[in-house]
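Priority: low. Protein: Methyltransferase type 11 domain-containing protein. Input follows.
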Amino acid sequence: MDIGCGVEMNCCKAVLTQFPDVRALIAVDKQSTVFQQAHFRDKKINSCVGNILERDSLKMHEGKMNKIISTNTFHHIDDKEMAFRNVYRLLKPGGEAGFLFVVNSWLYEFLKDLSELPKYSAILKGALPENLYPPDHGNQYYKEMLEKIGFKDVRAFEEEQRFCFPTDECFKDSIFGSLKIKLKMPLEAVETFKKDLLQVYEKAVGRYEGKLCHVSVRLNLLGVKPMESSDSKSKETTVN
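Result:
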């Protein structure tokens, strides 16, 4: 099962390429339009509209999954513990889960700093979520969370990912594009804002080999649901 498959279906594509003997793969997304617009299709892929935070939406699959993966989805989820619990419920005893999600971002920190400047504080107010990447929510924090839920053999490690923008214009358009639907800004102020974005980012973060880059820290998190035991059954029945 791939949770948060998205229109690109990247994980589904990778799994079927690397493991052609896989008999079936369930692609899950909370938006039904994802499956109408999917860029990759295969007869082995079964589409499922469901939300990992809403247990009932995936209840038919509980206790049936051998493996569950999710990439670049969990940093969009506020109640991660509930989502992890629902993943645990979906797994068969002995089933494995793997997650990859962002736990820190230079870009987010930069935009927070920008929002504190008097010139842009009113414009950016409400455009950024509060405390998106708490500093203490790293590999150890999430490792302990999975262990508390009941996962065994939990492994967690962070990796830094760097994406360099081809040109400064690409940087400005990308950052502004991600904010524009939330910004209250007159059209005549847009170009000035884009220039300030570039200057402040360059001063705060700098360049890598002459290019502006977005650097994020992503967490690889892996866990196994233990084989049936009185302990695991107890954990399942006491989870709300």
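Strands lie at 2-3, 25-29, 45-49, 65-71, 91-105, 152-164, 213-224. The chain is about 35% helix and 25% strand.
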